[in-house]
Amino acid sequence: MDREKRMRAWIRAEVMLLFIMMGAFLLRETGRTESMEQAVVTATSAAGKDYIKWVDFTVSYEALCQAYDWDVDTFDTEHHVEWIPLLAYAAARTGGEFDKKALKILNETAEKLAEGEAEIETLTKDMKYYPYYLEAYSAALGGLVGEYEAEVIGEDGQSTWQKKYGLKGYCPIARGFDYTHYDDFGAGRSYGYKRRHLGHDMMGLVGVPIIAVESGTVEALGWNQYGGWRIGIRSFDNKRYYYYAHLRQNYPYAEGLEEGSVVTAGDVIGYMGHTGYSTTENVNNIEVTHLHWGLELVFDEEQKESDNEIWIDVYPLTCFLAKHTQEVQKVEGTREWIRTTKIREF
C-alpha cells in the first residue's frame, strides 16, 4: 500500500513538473513573440512618418562569416547570394536566434539560391517578419560589403588600382597593434547616472591609431564629459552613426580632421587614450586605456539624439571586421600615423 501511495505521489510530481516545464516554454515563446511584435511595430513621428523603433542585433560572428563567404563566392555568377537578405531570411525563420539551427538554415538556403533552385523573393513573400529583418540588417551592415578599388604598390614604388569585391569596412584598430576585448555590451555604468554600456571597448596602449570603420562625414568632434575626446561619423546613407570615444589626451585626432570632414573607410581618424568622465576638457579620468566604439542605427532623424536611440551590440561585428585591417606608417617627426594604401569606392 505504501509502495502504491509512493508511486501515485511520484506520478503526480512528474505530471506537475511536466506542466511547469511546458508553462516555462510557453512563457519564453510568448515573450519572444511579444519582443518581435515590439520590434516590428513602428513609431509615428509628429510628421506622420513610420520607422523602426527597436532593433536587437543578435547576428553571431559565425553567421556573419558564413553569409559573407556565400556572398563573395557567388559574386559575378548567375545566382549571386547576397549576405544581408540571407541573414534576414535565417532570422525570420528562427525569430532572430542565430544558433546551430539558424546556421543550418542559412547554409542550406544559400546552397539552393546559388544553384538556382530557389529565389529569395519567392522564399520570403509570405514571411511576416522578413521585411523588418531586411531593413534592420541593411541599416546595420549596409556599407560594409561591395565593389571597390584597392591601391596596390608595385616593386617600383608605383601604385595601381585593382578592382575588388568583398569587405570594405575595417577593424577600428590599425594592423599590427595589439588589443584585448570581450562582449561588454549592456554592462552597468555609473558615472553621472546609472546606465547600460551601449558600445564596445577595445583595450590597448595610448596612441594606437584608430581607423574609420566605414566611409562617411564627421558629424561630431570635440569634448564630451562621458566620452572624453570623441568623434562621430555618419555613413553616407545616414543609417549608421559611428562613435569613437576616450581618445588621446592633448593629441586626440588625425591632423586636419574637423566637423564636416569626409573620411574614407580605413583612414586614420584618431588615437587611443583614456580621456573622459570629467566636465573639464582634456582630462584622463578613465582608468583603463581603451577605444570605446559604438554603432547607432538611425531610421528617422527624430531618433538620432533622443530617448529612443538604437545602439546595437557590435562585439560579433568587431570580430568579423578583424578580417580586414589597415596597415599604417608613422609620419617622421610628428605624432601622426597615416594609411599605407588607399581604397576608392563606387
> Which class of secondary structure composition applies to the elements?
alpha+beta
Beta strand %: 15-25%
Spans where pLDDT lies below 50 across 5 or more residues:
1-7, 13-34
Terminal CA distance reads: 84 Å
Work out the number of β strands: 19
The CATH architecture of the largest domain would be Distorted Sandwich
- Number of helical regions: 8
State the CATH class of the largest domain. Mainly Beta
- Give the mean pLDDT: 90
Helix coverage percent: 25-40%
CATH topology category name of the largest domain: Glucose Permease (Domain IIA)
- Biggest sheet features: 8 strands, antiparallel
Overall shape: it is globular
Quick summary of this structure?
The protein is α+β, with helices and mostly antiparallel strands and 346 residues long. Helices cover 31% and strands 25% of the residues.
Write the layout of secondary structure elements.
Blueprint: H1 2-40, E1 42-44, E2 50-52, H2 61-74, H3 83-94, H4 100-114, H5 120-124, H6 130-141, E3 145-153, E4 159-167, E5 180-181, E6 188-189, E7 195-196, E8 200-203, E9 209-211, E10 216-224, E11 228-235, E12 240-245, E13 262-263, E14 268-271, E15 290-297, H7 301-304, E16 310-311, H8 315-321, E17 328-330, E18 337-339, E19 343-345
Antiparallel strand pairs: 1-2, 3-4, 3-19, 5-8, 6-7, 8-15, 9-14, 10-11, 10-13, 11-12, 12-15, 15-16, 17-18
Helix pairs in contact: 2-3, 2-4, 2-8, 3-4, 3-6
